[in-house]
Design goal:
It is built from 14 helices and 16 strands. The chain is α/β, with parallel strands linked by helices. The strands form two sheets. Strands 1-10-12-11-13-16-14-15 form an eight-stranded mixed beta sheet, with helices on both faces. An eight-stranded mixed beta sheet has the order 3-2-9-5-6-7-8-4, sandwiched between helices. It is elongated. The site of ligand BES has 16 residues, from α8.
């Protein structure tokens, strides 16, 4: 999978002592010792052993979106939130996923190595092999492929058009060979009922077949494709809500703490992102019985790795009133690797906001200088586009184990977990505790970001 570059536009960390800018307007300015004493109500309770143990539980196997393993993680997370006294909800959402088929190609009786073209229909065809050039309409006017299998060269027109043209001319299957050395991993772009089964082979194999046919020898071929197709899958978000403790003194504001519980295939995802989920669980435990005047929502998202699907589904499910009331979203994604760099706060637009201000100030009080940068690539993105101040907490530079089978428990650092939990915990508690007035929500302009344009020259 092609990765977007890690955009680390580090801006000067202009940390101010005490109360952050977005907050200063109405908050009483407490001496920093008093602030620290309030932070300590949270910080002293955070125990990184708990976070580590939850990561251990979650990272025993990959948690691919839509699978039983992801569902088991969802149930574990939900039961933990419930055990701390939270109201919980498991929010399902569906997505489409393409299942690669099993394919076989035989020339006479001999198997031929082949690759599938994504979105090929399933099916079996046996027949005479006919060379159809590039399978343009003109090429097909010159040959009779009706009831036969078309051997087609890559180039000039799309794979989909080649398959459609050949099908239109009556071919029962299509074998496309590469026009550069090696095998070919292509896609037909999208499913189409007019396609016939289609596979690809190497340039070398393709040219051999073309010359055999050119010598006038007949070739019989079989193409067999089974088990491919699009299926509807279901993933889930886990939502745990802490209502304000004293309804009569409550603000109408909401804070969201997020992480994603799915992982990529083949990776146990200990850091990506069992670390963020387990840190959210620990903050939920610590905050559970604290008096608060702000609604706190802990949300762990499914199918982040498939394109932030869970967080888009969650934000879609919010009413405009709820969106207006959310003053900040803290996304923790990859917050515990011993082999990664410093804790950085990334926003989608590279601007500071309520979340980064509160966290920078909390970092000053807890002794960590946080830096800033601009990056999407996680569940803070849909919140930003809904006009909600949001930031991604992650260590930069990344560890080498990112999206590999080595993203496992043994690489997790309790110190890194503790540091992140303290900063996010102190920042959230500063908003939520009853002695601080409502925040002025920082402005976010929800303009889509052009990733391709930003990509130049970055790591
Ligand atoms: N944890 C990563 C996010 C990440 C990695 C952010 C490196 C910044 C730097 C996340 O789980 C991920 O891998 N996201 C996908 C993007 C998503 C839209 C599919 C990615 O970056 O490939
Ligand atoms: Zn992640």
């Amino acid at each position: 999978m092609r990765r977007k570059p890690f955009i680390a536009l580090l801006m000067a960390a202009s940390l101010t002592m005490g109360v952050p800018a977005a907050y200063a307007k109405e908050a009483p300015t407490l001496p920093s010792q008093a602030q620290q004493a309030l932070d300590n109500k949270i910080i002293k309770k955070i125990n990184s052993d708990n976070i580590y143990d939850d990561i251990a539980h979650l990272s025993s196997e990959p948690r691919i979106a839509g699978t039983e393993a992801e569902w088991e993680a969802v149930q574990y997370i939900e039961s933990k939130f419930s055990s701390y006294g939270y109201q919980t909800e498991i929010q399902p959402f569906t997505f489409e996923s393409y299942q690669e088929p099993t394919i076989s190609v035989r020339i006479g009786d001999k198997p031929l190595a082949s690759s599938s073209l994504t979105y090929t229909p399933n099916g079996e065809a046996t027949g005479e092999l006919v060379y159809a050039g590039l399978a343009t309409e003109a090429d097909l006017a010159d040959v009779d492929v009706s009831g036969k299998i078309a051997l087609v060269k890559r180039g000039d027109i799309s794979f989909a058009d080649k398959v459609l043209n050949a099908a239109q001319a009556g071919a029962t299957a299509v074998i496309i060979y590469n026009n550069v050395p090696g095998s070919l991993a292509g896609t037909l772009g999208a499913p189409n009922d007019d396609f016939v089964p289609a596979v690809s082979i190497t340039q070398e194999e393709g040219e051999k077949l073309v010359s055999t046919l050119a010598e006038g020898q007949a070739i019989s071929a079989t193409v067999n494709i089974t088990g491919g197709g699009i299926s509807q899958q279901t993933s889930h978000n886990v939502i745990a809500v802490k209502e304000p403790t004293q309804k009569n003194k409550a603000t109408d504001q909401i804070v969201v703490v997020g992480a994603h519980h799915d992982s990529v295939p083949g990776s146990p995802g200990a850091n990506d992102d069992a670390s963020g989920v387990a840190t959210s669980l620990e903050l939920a435990r610590v905050l559970a019985n604290m008096p608060t005047d702000t609604e706190i929502r802990f949300v762990t998202f499914g199918a982040e790795e498939l394109g932030l699907l869970g967080s888009y589904a969650y934000v879609d499910s919010l009413s405009q009133d709820e969106r207006d009331r959310i003053v900040g979203m803290f996304q923790m994604d990859m917050v515990g690797s011993r082999d990664a760099g410093e804790l950085v706060m990334f926003t989608v637009d590279g601007e500071k906001n309520t979340v980064t201000d509160l966290s920078a100030a909390a970092g000053v009080r807890t002794g960590t200088a946080l830096t800033y940068g601009q990056e999407g690539r996680s569940d803070h993105v849909p919140f930003h586009y809904a006009g909600i101040p949001a930031a991604l907490f992650i260590h930069n530079p990344l560890e080498p184990w990112y999206h590999t089978p080595e993203d496992s428990l043994d690489k997790i650092s309790k110190e890194k977990l503790q540091e992140t939990a303290e900063i996010v915990g102190a920042a959230v508690y500063q908003i939520a505790r009853p002695d601080t007035p409502a925040l002025e929500k920082s402005k976010v302009s929800p303009k889509p970001v052009d990733y391709e344009k930003m990509a130049g020259g970055l790591q």
